Amino acid sequence: MTMLTPPSPPAEPLLGHLRLISKDAPAFLRMLGREYGDISTFRLGRRVVYFVNNPDYIQQVVQSKQFARTNLTRKLLSSFLGDGLFSQEGALHLQQRRLMQPAFHRERYPLYANVMVDNSLAAVSDWRDGETRSITHAMMHLTLEIVSQALFGSSTSTEARQIGEALALVQKAIDNEYELYSLLPDWLPIMRTGKYRQAVAILQTATQKIVRERRKAGQETGDLLSMLLVAQDEDGSCLTDDQVTGQVLSMLFAGHETTANTMAWTWYLLARNPEARNKLSAELDAVLGDRVPTMADLPQLKYTDMVTKESLRLYPSAWYAERTPNETTQIGPYTVKAGTSVAVSVYVTQRDGRFFDQPDQFMPERFSEENIERIPKFAYMPFGAGSHQCIGNMFASMEVRLMVATIAQRFELHTLPNYEPQQRAVVTMGIRDELPMRISTRRVQA
Q1: What is the pTM of this model?
Q2: Which of 121, 140, 314, 424 is positioned for an S-S bond with 260, CB 3.0–4.6 A?
Q3: What is the 3-state secondary structure (H, E, C) of the chain?
């Protein structure tokens, strides 16, 4: 028998579960998965959202061509990213993804690796033993420098900083207003206060200027923007300037704040787990000695890789996504009508005790060669899956490992007494405050 309505917790009139979600969305969704099974529902005003928390159902939602990003998601992202990869679906999305792919070819990765290590060294050059630093701020600055240099080279750093500051303002606007957007009809335009409109204008103007000037110069400079400007599809078509602008903004958005969040959570987890931190230090000493890491070292930095994978399991930056079927479909025993929102949370699935022993504990060894095969494929996917899998996942994975190796080789970071960071989870999962940490220098142990 087909059951038409999945279970749902008690809801308030009119608001539904909005206040519970606003208070702590990750905790609310974990409760849903734990108490209401693999498919449940929650309500945002009149909008009913199906929530799936089973690898088989998740695979169907993220891989099937029947499912696409919701109108709300696309409208929010296109409001400040323009015609980028995040706001496209279907044939246009696949075409743009093909055109962007050469920018992430393996041949270019040694160059990107040098950018990552050099900027990491520069970022910690003024760190001193015993001082306290805002690690969220430091990581935001570092990842912006890395992604802007990989995208633009070193000649547009001023514009890149403007774009980074504007992206932060827009992200804050979306975080503050997301629940409101979810209550509004799809046909209503997304409007923001004056300073956020100004931030969007800065994003578009600064990026368009960079694209126009580079197009006019017509020079191959070896960065991602150069690749986008000359990219051609099989039929000879190229990206328009508006599309290039959208792709640049999408990569800045995806490669800046999300990676900074991952780094901040990684330092916090290592500080709270000194045994893992000591194992990481021992590996860095054994493999690198006192020289800087390179891309060629990554296969030998196995524990470093386990640390970053475990950090992404516990705190995936892209922690929540919604899709919608383009026709009535079946998920498990339930019929889901076309246009219905279906939510997936990798944060919830990656902390599910059915798939991970002691799911809330930081245990990098679960990603060792002998253990990783036990993890169901769609129970761990911090970079997404299917046609919307992060196109820069290899770039981001290399970046995090090289940043961890470069910085942990030189410093240990310690949390302050009685300090506990607060999650900020709306579009991305970050830390609500500055994450102050005490710096201590370390030396290579022979």
Answers
A1: 0.91
A2: 140
A3: CCECCCCCCCCECCCECHHHHHHHHHHHHHHHHHHHCCEEEEEECCEEEEEECCHHHHHHHHHCCCEEECHHHHHHHHHHHCCCHHHCCHHHHHHHHHHHHHHHCHHHHHHHHHHHHHHHHHHCCCCCCCCEEEHHHHHHHHHHHHHHHHHHCCCCHHHHHHHHHHHHHHHHHHHHHHHHHHHCCCCCCCCCCHHHHHHHHHHHHHHHHHHHHHHHHCCCCCCHHHHHHHCECCCCCECCHHHHHHHHHHHHHHHCHHHHHHHHHHHHHHHHCHHHHHHHHHHHHHHHCCCCCCHHHHHHCHHHHHHHHHHHHHCCCCCCEEEEECCCEEECCEEECCCCEEEECHHHHCCCCCCCCCCCCCCHHHHCCCCHHHCCHHHCCCCCCHHHCCCCHHHHHHHHHHHHHHHHCCEEEEECCCCCCCEEECCCEEECCCCEEEEEECCCCC
